[in-house]
Amino acid sequence: MPIDLTYSPEVEALIEKTRTFVRTEILPIEDEFHGNVEDAGGDELRVRMQRAAKDAGVFAPHAPIEYGGAGLNMCDRAPLFEEGGYSLFGPPALNIGAPDEGNVHMLAHIASDAQKQQFLAPLAAGDVRSAFAMTEPAPGAGSDPSALTTAAVKVDGGWKIDGHKWFITGADGAGFFIIMARTSGKPGMRGGATMFLAPADTKGIKVGRHIGTLDKAMIGGHCEVFFDNVFVPDENVLGAVDEGFAYAQVRLGPARMTHVMRWLGAARRGHDIAVAQVAQREGFGSKLGDLGMVQKMVADNEIDIAATRALLIQACFALDQGSHASNETSIAKTYAAEAVFRIVDRSIQMCGGLGVSDDLPLARLSREVRPFRVYDGPSEVHRWAIAKRVVGAAKKAAQ
């Protein structure tokens, strides 16, 4: 069947409004505070930016229509999220940043009607933030989620959860947690996990230290979180018991792609800055942009941008068709995570001393995009999964 790579007039208009809003309203704030969201005001800043985004008509394009969003599918989200990611502060301003955006997507697909009213509605509206509590210190769940050690034990009327999580993005100040805990089996077993919804003020939940990381644009930090005899009622089980790993796939594939969308926007900004610089600066008897070595970096950036976008759209198309798109999202995520860093790194090189200074945003962009090769599955794990699928298919065919 034919594949249409154009967007409807309504989406095109929303793309343009988002581009204008982010570049005129949000970029100046990011530049003033050198990309450090806590210095800029943290949650108070988020509330102000989101109010402005609502006034501009560009707020939460991914959220279901009945919860105030535009209800866009994955393919239509891609250019909008890319424009949002052009500023590091754009995603929280539009309410399309991690982890809230992925949690909105998952709750819309899995939550009961009562859970949607209690958790999804305020999250989609920007009234609260959320956190997805999965990752644990070794030997617990990390790149290998089957190592999950946080345990939930059935009690009268609900469950009691005990465990220790870390690198939980946005935990400080979150309104509620989605907790992944083991309800059957032992660490190392692939099944037996369940997701639970718990308001942040639930007794026994303690947000610990902020873990210092390269990136500084994430509201609520990357934190340790402790769950000590936390009671969650049966009605706050998200989905079915013991099916948490399967349900997580509803979130993980799309969330990886929305990460790609946002970081592609950041990388494109770095490239635009570098191209503007080399087109004007003179050296060695000509404009820098006329020198062959510089032109190679410009061309390689253009290739990486185009290839990332193409792989992204292919994966989004598969997701929109109802596929888990495991291979497509792994390929797009792995390529993009490495490509966006190459793009920003070349942009720094083209700008020389200015590139590593605070006079341009390139150095902070470099810090922000580097963790993407670790977040949402390290490149090595995705490569292993891709190869495993391909070799497995070949073995099956041989039989």
Account of the protein in words:
This protein is of the alpha+beta class. Helices cover 51% and strands 15% of the residues. The strands form three sheets. A four-stranded mixed beta sheet has the order 1-4-5-8, covered by helices on one side. It has a four-stranded antiparallel beta sheet with strand order 2-3-7-6, with no helix packed on it. β9 (282-283) and β10 (286-287) form a beta hairpin. The longest helix has 37 residues, at 244-280. The relative contact order is 0.11.
Keywords:
single chain; about 400 residues; alpha+beta; 4-stranded antiparallel β-sheet
Low-confidence stretches: none
Gyration radius (Cα, Å) is: 21 Å
Overall 3D shape: globular
How many H/I helical runs? 12
Alpha-carbon distance between the termini? 32 Å
Query: What kind of sheet is the major sheet?
Result: 4 strands, mixed
Structural class assignment:
alpha+beta
Helical percentage: 40-55%
What series of H and E elements makes up the topology? HHHHHHHEEEEEEEEHEEHHHH
